[in-house]
Amino acid sequence: MIGAETRLVALLGHPVAHSLSPVIMNAALRRENVNGVYLALHAKTLRDLLACVRDIPIHGLSITMPYKESIVKFLDNTDSHTTKIGACNTVVRAQDGKLYGFNTDAAGVVRPLEQRLTIDKSKILVLGAGGAARAAVFGLKERAAEVYILNRTASPAQKLARSARARMVKRADLKKLNFDVIINATPVGMGSTRESPLHENEIQARYVFDMIYDPPETRLMKFAKARGAQVIPGIEMFVHQAARQFEIWTGKPAPWDDMLRVVTLALQEQEARKAGKEAARK
Ligand code: NAP
Description:
By secondary structure, this protein is of the alpha/beta class. It has 2 domains: 7-103, Leucine Dehydrogenase, chain A, domain 1 (Rossmann fold, 3-Layer(aba) Sandwich); 106-236, NAD(P)-binding Rossmann-like Domain (Rossmann fold, 3-Layer(aba) Sandwich), CATH 3.40.50. It is 39% helix and 20% strand. It has helices at 21-31, 46-55, 80-85, 105-114, 131-142, 154-164, 219-226, 234-250, 256-281; strands at residues 7-13, 36-42, 60-63, 77-78, 90-93, 99-102, 123-127, 146-150, 167-168, 179-184, 205-210, 230-232. It has a 6-stranded mixed sheet with strand order 2-1-3-5-6-4. Strand 1, helix 1 (21-31) and strand 2 form a beta-alpha-beta unit. Helix 1 packs antiparallel against helix 9 (256-281), helix 4 (105-114) packs across helix 8 (234-250) and helix 8 crosses helix 9. The model has no long low-confidence stretch (mean pLDDT 95). The site of NADP nicotinamide-adenine-dinucleotide phosphate has 25 residues, from helix 4, helix 5 and helix 8. Residues 105, 108, 128-133, 151-153, 156, 185-188, 190, 197, 211-213, 234, 237-238, 241 line the site of NADP nicotinamide-adenine-dinucleotide phosphate.
């Protein structure tokens, strides 16, 4: 099915081997009959990445760690999210050959929330002040949410709060505060650590949105359920930021529900493989 007309879209980062992006993007391209193929390309250095972009007629790019920030200065133009967040995760090569950069992480946060509540005036606590937190804070402020920030280190949180006109919260005050949503934008709870960024009695919220999707259910999500909150899993952010990328590259609405189904299945298979290996080791 691949021919001269086939458009190439690629994920560039280091590492990329375990990424779920090819699964989700190729499913979406097939579902929408787009003559395109999505590949993961391992760029060990930014120089490798730029050489790929220069030498291969790639139509669209997903930029992942560690290049989301360093790529920005090589782009011809960027959207307002990239400028505010200072990081780009999506590039499209326009007909004039110029490279346009976007950041779709804000859509990855806003879309799962707007399916569940009115964001305008909702009280939302964001844990963290890194790239993902910045995307959440700017995306939610743009939708008129009341945004609060809590971070391990005060200075990045202060900087973010100032530039986004959000408020800071002290951890000691959490027990006195109620939120519509708490969003975890830290890596705490990732992999097999079984840690949580909050204690169970610090959670007073209608929804808890954990950006982490490995494992699919984190300790924070378990605590949230025990406190009667509804949980939004990180895989929804992954799907919705990818859906927005698909729209940028193809100009078509993304089949996000199919994308969610495909990637949920892939994650379950990944978990089953891990459990199998663990059992074999014992
Ligand atoms: P980042 O730029 O490195 O920022 C990490 C943030 O977490 C910082 O604010 C850092 O605080 C805080 N942090 C790190 N370790 C901590 C610890 N042990 N205790 C308390 N706070 C800690 O990372 P990022 O790119 O924003 O990503 C954050 C998380 O979001 C990652 O788990 C990533 O996988 C996830 N994510 C998910 C999606 C998705 O599609 N679902 C998309 C993007 C990111 P300090 O300032 O004190 O260092």
